[in-house]
Design brief:
Blueprint (H helix, E strand, L loop, with lengths): L1 H18 L3 E2 L5 E3 L2 E5 L16 E5 L2 E10 L12 E8 L4 E8 L4 E10 L2 E8 L12 E6 L1 H4 L3 E4 L2 E4 L8 E5 L20 E5 L3 E8 L8 E13 L9 E6 L6 E10 L10 E3 L12 E6 L8 E7 L5 E15 L2 E7 L7 E7 L2 E2 L3 E3 L9 H10 L5 E4 L2 E4 L7 E3 L24 E2 L15 E2 H18 L6 E4 L4 E4 L7 H20 L5 E3 L3 H4 L13 E2 L14 E2 L5 E4 L4 H18 L4 H24 L8 H15 L2 H17 L1 H11 L5 H24 L14 H17 L10 H8 L42 E3 L3 E3 L8 H4 L3 H19 L3
Parallel strand pairs: 27-33, 29-37, 35-36
Antiparallel strand pairs: 1-2, 2-3, 3-4, 4-5, 5-10, 6-7, 7-8, 8-9, 9-18, 10-17, 11-12, 11-15, 13-14, 15-16, 16-17, 16-18, 19-20, 20-23, 21-22, 21-24, 22-23, 24-25, 24-26, 27-28, 29-30, 31-34, 32-33, 34-37, 38-39
Helix pairs in contact: 3-16, 4-5, 4-7, 4-16, 5-7, 5-8, 7-8, 7-9, 9-10, 9-11, 10-11, 11-12, 11-13, 13-14, 13-16
Bound molecules: calcium ion (CA) (3 copies).
């Protein structure tokens, strides 16, 4: 009987292999087991041009290793090279093909790409109705990009010649006149040509007609052939975030089907993705619920049980628990089951085994959450202090940046989501030095600008942490006088107070020197915006003097002709001024007794900005409640700071209405008010908290992880953290409605219980297996800055979540921000506080 069953299984398997041609599925991508070919499911319309997330993409055995398939204008396109606009997308189910229209407005250049399933391959054809414009002849080509970290050190052959993908960029380049370079985004330039008027163009690693990649790694193996010439380039020659690029230059003066490629991604027969056992890498307290979420391939057979093993003090292991697997169901492309081992409460070292898959070990112990914020407060935050030299032991993280200060931005466009309006809104002339801005403040994220809105949030987050938890932790030496920060050197002052002071120093200087808040203090030129390395070397530290030639230094050594000075973008926004005013009022409260002079300055600016901003707002045409939530929060903060009744009246007028409209988005602001209001307010809030509790539980129905999972172009850790903080405070003030166990939802998600992999999203003390690469300012080293929180799971349409841990350069999944990471401090501090409370 058994023999017979095996024979049946064999026959079924064989039929399946034969049936394994690429098929266009209902989600409009080509699929066979182990291979997904996506054709502009994600087009080039992200926030930052070429995000390496678009065009023709291949998800190869679960990993998105190929993207960027499109007509492009460069051998190795960079982030700010032009991207095509998708003008049409036609799916032909009968023919098994997808056709996409692409257009470059800058060059009035249209093309079409048609992808057709042909057995185990797809044919990619480029069609032109009009020849390539003369300006792009020899430059426009069809490109496909391959993820370096998945291909480096693997072999490849071009027309049979043996090769290996280099671990580091080490091929050759030529330089060409700038006049031959296709225009970049808004006319900006990604490079400093050092006065040569020439740009760098990589030479191909190989050229031919038939390339086979990674025959030494079946899950990555792919074959591409064409009658046209194929050239393989290494994009890392121009930019560390470049990919390997395979390309065919479009022929001149031709129309019709001008390029044809045959692309065959190899599929491992009957490939089943290994189960991803999601659990908290930080571990669990004995009393909390403990549920692993196991992500399974849709072709995988669910096993009836899983086991928990304990590693004993003598190094031997024993089975601690065996429990049933329960089904949750399908969520996008995978099937989800759960393993509940909450009944195991004995402190110890454990791992989970499901079938042949074992996790790394984790702890069950009362103290597992004790250190979850330490790396963020002791390491990540001080390293992001701007205008300071930051030292750690033998290592310098960065010298003192931007010594020459900030110039008034001229009316201009910009590359990081802001711009300077038609006037400066200040007393300064364009390019004039604004004194006193090069003090305090925090780097925005993986870049080095001071985003004013974010810095306001940062100071607010620190003040909240200080006022709620009064953390006395002192691990950091901060001297504003010496402009020097030394990690792990206590100086007798709680670090949080010093962080508040540092943030306020910059923001108060903005208010005093500019007269109102700037939008941002940022780079003036694109070629130093993408800086990787020591922040102190972004600019030359010398005042820009346009009377000198570029790269020339004045005789006194103080000025240079290099236009690298940072700019202050000063278009006035009264809403931002109001936010700053509320923050300044709270800051003056927090700083009193520590830095009275700064506290006084903050209060003075708070009063002035509030008055001026209110006047400006009253003169503006009424807008439909667009900033209501911000206003509401500002009114609350202003009431707390000043105790003036009219702010409270305004807040009360707004909050109930807001809660009626949307409980979930307004609950945190409502909870923020609780400590300052009476019992009547709390009672009135109670039914809304009950509604919020329903909202929390609804996530158990929406997805297997029970948290709000964002599907945007920047992964959703911000939303998850706000949710976590709100849940924590809802529990603190209404423990009978929101139960204690709810606070672990977000902790589980952050520390490893999520799709794709089970690594902790926080480079954190305490986690067994934190993520190892992040998009920080040291990303070129494939590294991290301790305490960073990754945005997490990036959703790619139509059904793929990913978080690369071998490739740091996708900001939407790996970049920690100063506002997000200080939000994490509040989440972590409140979680620790609740964990410690006795039931
Ligand atoms: Ca920025
Ligand atoms: Ca300190
Ligand atoms: Ca300079």
């Amino acid at each position: 009987m058994k023999r017979y069953l095996n024979l049946v299984a064999f026959l079924v398997a064989t039929t399946m292999v034969q049936a394994q041609d690429l098929k266009l599925n209902d989600l409009e991508y080509f699929e066979r087991q182990g291979v997904n070919v996506l054709v502009f499911s994600n087009s080039f319309n992200g926030g930052f041009n070429d995000e390496k997330n678009s065009g023709i993409e291949i998800i190869h055995h679960g990993v998105r290793t190929v993207q960027g398939g499109a007509v492009r204008l460069n051998n190795t396109p960079e982030q700010w090279d032009l991207v095509p606009k998708m003008t049409s997308r036609k799916v032909d189910k009968d023919k098994g093909s997808i056709e996409v229209g692409m257009r470059y407005d800058d060059y009035d250049f249209d093309s079409r790409v048609v992808v057709t399933a042909k057995g185990k391959s797809v044919e990619i054809a480029v069609w032109l109705d009009k020849p390539v414009p003369a300006a792009l002849a020899g430059e426009a080509g069809f490109n496909l990009e391959f993820l370096p970290s998945q291909y480096w050190l693997k072999t490849f052959t071009m027309d049979g010649r043996l090769n290996r993908f280099p671990r580091y960029a080490t091929s050759q380049t030529v330089t060409r006149p700038n006049s031959e370079k296709p225009r970049q985004f808004k006319g900006f330039k990604t490079y400093d040509d050092r006065g040569t008027d020439r740009f760098v163009d990589p030479l191909p690693l190989e050229t031919g007609h038939d390339i086979v990649m990674a025959m030494d790694e079946p899950e990555r193996m792919i074959r591409i052939s064409s009658d046209s010439e194929l050239k393989l380039f290494d994009g890392r020659m121009l930019a560390q975030n470049g990919w390997f690029v395979l390309r065919t230059i479009l022929p001149k003066d031709k129309t019709g089907k001008v390029v044809t490629w045959t692309v065959e991604p190899y599929a491992v027969p009957n490939w089943i993705r290994e189960p991803n056992i999601g659990f908290s890498q930080v571990g669990y307290t004995p009393e909390q619920s403990k549920v692993a979420v196991i992500e399974l391939d849709k072709n995988d057979k669910v096993k009836p049980t899983a086991q928990l093993f304990r590693i004993k003090a003598d190094g031997t292991q024993e089975k601690a628990f065996q429990g049933k697997i329960t089904s949750w169901g399908n969520y996008y492309k995978y099937n989800y089951v759960k393993f509940d081992f909450s009944s195991v409460r004995e402190p110890g070292i454990y791992y989970i085994q499901y079938g042949d898959t074992k996790t790394n070990n984790f702890l069950i112990d009362e103290h597992v959450y004790d250190k979850i914020t330490d790396a963020t407060t002791d390491v990540w935050v001080p390293i992001h202090m701007n205008h300071m030299y930051v030292n750690e032991g033998y290592r310098t993280w960065h010298g003192e940046p931007f010594k020459e200060g900030y110039l008034q931005a001229p009316p201009s466009d910009h590359f990081d989501l802001h711009s300077q309006g038609a006037t400066t809104d200040t007393k300064y002339k364009p390019y004039e030095l604004i004194q006193g801005l090069n003090v305090g403040g925090f780097f925005d994220a993986g870049d080095f600008d001071i985003e004013t809105g974010s810095n306001i949030s940062v100071v607010e987050n620190f003040i909240r942490t200080w006022e709620l938890f009064k953390p006395q932790r002192d691990e950091t030496f901060v001297s504003e006088e010496q402009r020097y920060v030394d990690l792990y050197r206590p100086d007798g002052v709680p670090d949080i107070l010093q962080f508040i002071e540092h943030g306020v120093l910059n923001l108060v200087a903005q208010a005093e020197q500019i007269g109102h808040m700037s939008q941002t203090l940022s780079n003036s030129v694109l070629d130093n915006y993408h800086h990787l390395g020591d922040a102190a070397s972004i600019t030359d530290g010398l005042h820009y003097d346009p009377s000198l030639k570029p790269y020339e230094v004045s005789a006194d050594g103080k000025r240079s002709g290099t236009p690298d000075d940072m700019w202050a973008f000063t278009t006035r926004n009264p809403q931002l001024d109001l936010r700053a005013a509320a923050m300044f009022a709270a800051a003056s409260r927090a700083l009193k007794g520590y830095n009275d002079e700064l506290a006084e300055r903050a209060l003075t600016q708070s009063k002035r900005l509030t008055q001026e901003a209110n006047e400006l707002v009253s003169r503006q045409p009424a807008r439909r409640n667009r900033n209501q939530r911000g206003n509401m929060s500002t009114n609350l903060q202003l009431y707390i700071a000043t105790k003036e009744q009219h702010y409270l009246d305004k807040f009360e007028e707004q909050i109930w209405n807001a809660l009626e409209q949307n409980v979930s988005t307004n609950m945190m602001t409502a909870l923020d008010a609780v400590p300052y209001m009476g019992e009547t307010y709390k009672n009135k809030l109670r039914p809304y908290v009950e509604k919020y509790n329903d909202y929390i539980h609804d996530f158990d129905r929406q997805n297997p992880y029970g948290v709000p999972i964002g599907l945007g172009n920047w992964a959703g850790v911000g939303g998850v953290l706000s949710f976590g903080i709100t849940v924590n405070y809802a529990h603190l003030y209404f423990p009978d409605i929101v139960k204690k166990d709810e606070i672990y939802r977000v902790a589980n998600w952050l520390y490893g219980c999520h799709p794709y992999h089970n690594y902790s999203f926080v480079a954190v003390v305490g986690a067994t297996r934190p993520k190892q690469v992040f998009y920080g300012n040291n990303r070129a080293d494939f590294s991290f800055i301790p305490g960073n929180v990754a945005p997490g799971l990036l959703f790619r349409k139509p059904d793929h979540f990913e978080n690369f841990d071998d490739w740091p350069f996708l900001w939407g999944q790996n970049e920690g921000t100063i506002a997000g990471n200080t939000q994490y401090i509040i989440f972590g501090a409140s979680l620790k506080g609740i964990v410690k409370e006795k039931k």
